[in-house]
Design brief:
The structure is a homodimer.
Chain A lengths: L3 E4 L14 E5 L4 H10 L4 E5 L2 H11 L2 E6 L2 E2 L9 H6 L1 H4 L3 E5 L3 H6 L6 E5 L4 H11 L3 E5 L8 H14 L9 H13 L3 H5 L3 H8 L3 H7 L10 E4 L2 E4 H10 L1
Parallel strand pairs in A: 1-8, 2-7, 2-8, 3-6, 4-6
Antiparallel strand pairs in A: 4-5, 9-10
Helix pairs in contact in A: 6-7, 7-8
């Protein structure tokens, strides 16, 4: 039986061997939720980048849409911020375009996970798609929490618990203490996830930035139930689209 | 109000500034429980060391009692293993002697925390002593979980939650997600802590080594309610004894 494990911080990735595994990158607030929403609203592919400079350069040189934030605030001079709502509101403008996105924590987690057999992006919005992919792959899964500046963060952990609950029949979710803890926290919070997560320091910080609309949206289970951002060469594409492209070749 | 934070792995210590803080080193199974028991049974001071060689050398050169384990098993050629019960059974033999102890995870956590203003050792056995010390110091506290080979471990985390619960009136236990999660896990497990922790991979490993007597003992709340191992120069001494020694000088 394949094993589901959870890495609470990119700083702990050195303890895991990612080879042959599926890595699920999670940054609920908000990079992974935003990327899922962007692909769900018709963005063709996403370049996640670490720096604002790279992000701006991709916009200038390749005509990408650009989205950027720093410390939870929109960065100046970009088309969009790291807000899923921005992509829904601007759906007509974003459809059919590529996106370059720079975020504080999510990009680092993704870049450090590229040794995995497959790298996908998970959020509550596309939980069903992650579950389906994990079942189909039937390999060990590592949930990589982006965290907040490397530190443990409640919302990413609770997502790991939700994934573990849905995969409990097909995966070993008992032999890692991190997975057990995430499962317990999810089970404690799931009846009213918003209230549960509102305790979190990170969420309070987000609320103070008047991004509470985003917060509520990021917790919607399976709003994009079939969208699965998957890493391909140098970008994230929707897995459905990737398979279509491969079939055409 | 001073803050209580929890670091889930020594690998994450680089994210914290320990200066001016109290560090509470925790390795419930079993280094911190064993050190508390040793001092409680009359050992004068403890040298925690990383390698078996150093441990043996302290025994040869300074006549210390020696205790060592590797991967949960007693290491050959030492007086005692890393078992609290060993010290209770041999109380007459250990009283008045110094101890050199080598353990897999606990020593590393301690050595990496020496930048703190004060470094103490915490376990369920001496929870009351840690609570009293934290209140008296009234400075920020960081619980440093030894973990299992650097990975998150349930029993150390739950101890952090127990400490947070007792200090909730005097310390900020809300502004760190790690502390919130630990508090939730403790509250979920405390009614039957042994049953709760028996799910853990690490605990199952311990049970398979027939150390279940140790496991039950390590969960006894406040069995040594006044013993507080504190780091002084190059060794751990009981805080009560340290103050006595300072008064004599």
């Amino acid at each position: 039986m394949p094993k589901l494990d959870i890495c609470f911080s990119p700083e702990l990735l050195l303890l895991y061997d990612l080879r042959g595994r599926v890595a699920v990158i999670v940054d609920i607030l908000r990079a992974s939720s935003t990327i899922v929403t962007a692909l769900g609203e018709g963005v063709t592919h996403v370049f996640p980048v670490a720096s604002l400079e790279e992000c701006a350069a991709l916009g200038r040189q390749h005509g990408c849409l650009t989205a950027a934030e720093r410390d939870g605030l929109p960065a100046a001079g970009f088309d969009l911020s790291n807000s899923p709502f921005g992509f829904r509101d601007a759906a007509r403008r974003v459809r059919g375009r590529a996106l370059a996105i720079s975020t504080t924590n999510g990009t680092a987690a993704l870049q450090r996970s590229l040794a995995a057999k497959a790298v996908v992006v998970g959020s509550f919005l596309n939980l069903a798609a992650v579950v389906a992919f994990a079942r189909e792959q039937a390999r060990d899964v590592l949930v990589v929490c982006a965290g907040w500046k490397g530190q443990f963060c409640l919302e990413d952990t609770v997502f790991g618990g939700a994934l573990a609950e849905r995969l409990a029949a097909d995966f070993d979710v008992q032999s890692s203490d991190a997975t057990l803890a995430a499962l317990h926290l999810w089970q404690q919070g799931k009846a009213d996830l918003a209230a549960y997560l509102e305790q979190s320091a990170h969420v309070r910080r987000l609320n103070s930035l008047e991004a509470s609309q985003d917060f509520a949206f990021c917790l919607r289970l399976d709003a994009y139930a079939t969208v699965l951002p998957i890493w391909q060469k140098d970008r994230l594409v929707d897995a459905a689209r990737r398979n279509a492209a491969l079939d055409e070749e």
